[in-house]
C-alpha cells in the first residue's frame, strides 16, 4: 500500500493523542472519600478484569480510529509493499498509448496535452504500483514493443508527444495479448490512454471478440485487467485545416498552383456553435507566404480553386497551409506537395488480346487535362507473384487467381484498389472474394434475355451522370453471358450492380477492405456483347473504377501519416516537418518526405479530424468479458487515479471503530442494574 | 448541636418506652419497682406545669425564688445514645457540599432525643464509638447535662475504623438498669457482629432503636464518571468505573439491608433509615409516633 498524499503522514503523531488522553484521564479521576467500601469492593473485585480489558480496547480502538483517519487523508492505494507482502504485486503492466494526432490537444486551461498529462499520471501511478515489468506499446505503431529500463525514464522517451498518425488500438491490444501469452502466467494489467476516437478503436471489427477471449485465456486464473483512461473533453471551437486538392498548371511561361482548402470547426458544447467566422489561413510555398481569409459557416468553410503563382522552373515542390494556433496544434497545419501531372495506372492481365485491347483503350483515354493514364500489362507467375506497385485498377480476364497471386490481389483491394474481373474463355472452379464464375450461356440477340434489365443508377460504376442522365446500359446487346456464383457465406458484402431478366446477375460487386472486386458477366468483344462498339458504357465503367480506386488509394503525393516501413528506407529524407526528423517516427510525423524525385506530404488521417468519440460503454463492451476499469479523466482535474484507491475501506474501518467505541462506552452496568431493579 | 426548630416541629410528642423500665418514681413510664428511696439530685427553676408539691418552700422562704427539688430516683427512663464516630460517618454527599455529614446528623438527632428525654424528666446518657476511644457519659436528668452531651459530641472528630459493635456490648454490660438504647450509625459493618450486639442488649432487657444514617449516594450509587474511592477507615482505595460496578454494588447494598432488617426483627430492634437530605423533625416525629402506638413510618 502506498499513499497518493504522503504529506498526510505528518499527521501521524496525532495517533499518540488518544494514548495521551488515556494517561491524563487515568490521573484525572475524581477522588471521593467513601464509607460504603464494603459494597464497592464486592462489585469492583468482579469487574476489575473486565474494566481493564475494556479500557485497553477503548485505547486501541481510539488509536486505530485516528490512524485510520490519517491514512484516509493520505489517499491510500493498493499495490506497492502491501501488495508485495500479500503476494499480489503486479507482474506486468502493458501501457498502450494512443499517440494519434487528436491526443495532442490541450485541454483544461493548461499547456499540457492529453497525452502528456495521461502519461505523467500513468508514470506516477506506475512508480507507486511498482510492477515487475512495464511494456509500452505505441498504438500508432503497434508492431514495436518497448521495454523501458525503469518507470523513471518513461517520460524521457518522447512518448508524451502526439504523432500525426492514426492509432490502431486493436493492433495494440493484439500485440499486448501476444506479449501476455508469451510472458506466461502472472498478474498483468493493460493500461490504455486514449481519447476514444472511433476510427482509432474500430469497435465493429470482428477481431475484438476473439481478442477478448484470447486475453482471458492468456491471463489464466489471474485474469487480465484493463484500465482505460479516456479524455472525453474536446476543445471548443478547435479549427482544423486540410488541403483537399493541389494542381500545378502551366500556361506558357507561367505556372500556377490551384488549392482546394477546407477549414472545419469542432463540434463541442460551449463553443460558439454556428456563428459565422472568418479565419486567416497562411499559405506557404517555396518560402513565400500569403494569407487568405476563409469564412466558416456552420461547421466548415471551403476555399476552392485558390490560385497561387509559382516559379515555373520548379516542376515539383511542397508547401503548407496554416491556421492561427489553437488548442490542438496538430491540426493547425497541413502539408502538401505537387509534382508533374500524376499518372493513373491500370494493370491489365487478359487471356484474349481483343479484350485486352478494348480495356487498354478505355483505360488510356484521358479523363481530364491534369491526369495521365497508363496501362501496364502483367504476366503473373506463381513463383514471383504479382507486382501491383503503382497500379490503381486491375483488369483481369483469366481464370481467377489462386495462392500467392490471389493474396497479392487481396492486399491490393484491401488498400483501396479496384479489380475488374472479366470472365475467362473456360471458367474453372475457383473463387475470389466470395464470387466465382459459372458457365457461359448464349442469349438470343434482341430477345429479353439479351439485354440488361436492372442496374444501380443511383451509385457505383453504372450510376447516372451528375445531371441525372442515365448511362445507356439498357441498350447494350448481349450475345453470351457467363453466370456469376456466390461462394461461401456472408459477411462478405456482395452487391448486384446489374442484372438480366429473371434476376440473373450480370455485374456483382464484392467489397474487400477499402477497395472492391467487380465481376462483369460478359466481355467487351464482338462475340459476347456490343460493349466495345457502343463504348460509352464500358469507358464510363472503367474510368469510374479508376476514380474510385484513386480516391481510395490516395494520390502518391498526399498521404496519411502512419507506420509505413517504406518511409524508413534510406532513399527517403524529411525536407520539412513540424519537428526534427527522427528515423523511428518518420512516417508518423506530419511533414514532407522526398526521395530526390517525388515529394510526399504526410498529414494526419482525415478520421483524426472527423471521427466521433466513442462512449465509454462502447469501449468496455468491445473488451467484454475482460475486467475493464474505466477512468474518465478530466485534464483540468488533478484528482482521479489510475490505481485502486482504497481510502473507502479505511473510512469504513474508521466508522466501524467509532461504532465499537460507542458500544464500549455505553454504560452497560447501569443498564443491567436498572433491569435488575 | 441542639436543634430547637426540630423539637418545636415535633411539638409535645412524648418519648415513650414500649416496655416497662426500671425506675424509682412513678411517672410517665411504667416501672417494675414501687416505693423506692428518694435521693436528692439538684434544684432547678420552677417551670409552669411542675407539680406544686415538689416546690421547695423553704428555699422560697429564704430566697423568694421558686425552685423544684429533683431526685435521682425520679428518672424513670434512661435513654442511652450510642453514636458511631467511625470514618465512614464523615461522608456528606457526593460533592462534599451537603449541609451536614452523617456524623453531624447523628449528633443532632442524638441531641434532639436527649433534649426530649430531659425535658420530660428522663435521663439521657451518651456513648461515642470513636477512633481509639469510647466516650461514655452516664445518663443524667439535669437540663445542664445536655450541654455536657453536646460538648462531647462536638469534641469528638469521626475517623478510623468502626468500634460500634464493641461499644454496644460495652453499653449492654455497663447499663445496669433497663434502658432505652438509641444507636445512630450508618451500620456499614458485618451484620453478624451487629446481631450479637443487639441480642446482647435485648438479653440485658434494653429496648433498642437504630437510626441508620445514610446518603442517597450510598443507597443509589449515583456516580457517572470513573472515580477513585478512598476508604476513610483506612482500607485500600478503589478506582472504579461506576458503569461497571454499579449493578454489583447495588446488589450488595440490597443484601446488606435485607440482612439488617431480618436481624432487627429477630432482636426486636426498631430500625429506621434516615437520609442526609431528610427533614430531621420528620424522622423524630415518625419515631415518636411509632412509640405512642399512633403509627409512624419505620
What does this structure look like?
The complex is a heterodimer of chains A (677) and B (298). Chain A folds into 4 domains: 105 residues, no CATH class; 187 residues, Rossmann fold (3-Layer(aba) Sandwich); 157 residues, Immunoglobulins (Immunoglobulin-like, Sandwich), CATH 2.60.40; 211 residues, 3-Layer(aba) Sandwich (Rossmann fold). With 677 residues, chain A is α/β, with parallel strands linked by helices. The relative contact order of chain A is 0.12. Chain B has 9 helices and 10 strands. With 298 residues, chain B is an alpha/beta fold. Chain B is elongated, with a radius of gyration of 21 Å. At the A-B interface, strand 2, helix 2 and helix 15 of A face strand 8, strand 9 and helix 8 of B.
What brief labels describe this structure?
heterodimer; A: 677 residues; alpha/beta; Rossmann fold; Immunoglobulin-like; 4 domains; 8-stranded mixed sheet; 6-stranded mixed sheet; 15 helices; disordered C terminus; B: 298 residues; 2 domains; 37% helix; elongated
Layout of strands and helices, then pairs:
The complex is a heterodimer of chains A (677) and B (298).
Chain A lengths: L1 E2 L12 H12 L2 E4 L3 H37 L2 E2 L2 H6 L6 E6 L16 H16 L3 E6 L6 E2 L22 H15 L4 E7 L3 H4 L5 H13 L4 E7 L8 E13 L2 E12 L11 E9 L2 E9 L3 E11 L6 E6 L10 E6 L4 E8 L2 H12 L7 E6 L13 E7 L5 H12 L3 E5 L8 E2 L2 E8 L9 E4 L24 E7 L7 E7 L4 E8 L2 E6 L10 H4 L1 H18 L4 E3 L12 E5 L13 E4 L4 E5 L2 H5 L5 H8 L3 E6 L14 H19 L2 H9 L1
Parallel strand pairs in A: 4-5, 4-7, 7-8, 8-31, 16-17, 16-18, 18-19, 19-26, 27-30
Antiparallel strand pairs in A: 1-3, 5-6, 9-10, 10-13, 11-12, 11-14, 14-15, 20-21, 21-23, 22-24, 24-25, 25-26, 28-29, 29-30
Helix pairs in contact in A: 1-2, 2-14, 5-7
Chain B lengths: L3 H7 L29 E6 L11 H7 L3 E5 L6 E8 L16 H18 L3 E8 L2 E8 L4 H11 L8 H11 L5 E6 L5 H13 L3 E8 L1 H5 L6 E4 L7 E3 L1 H25 L3 E6 L4 H13 L6
Parallel strand pairs in B: 3-4, 3-6, 6-7, 7-10
Antiparallel strand pairs in B: 1-2, 4-5, 8-9
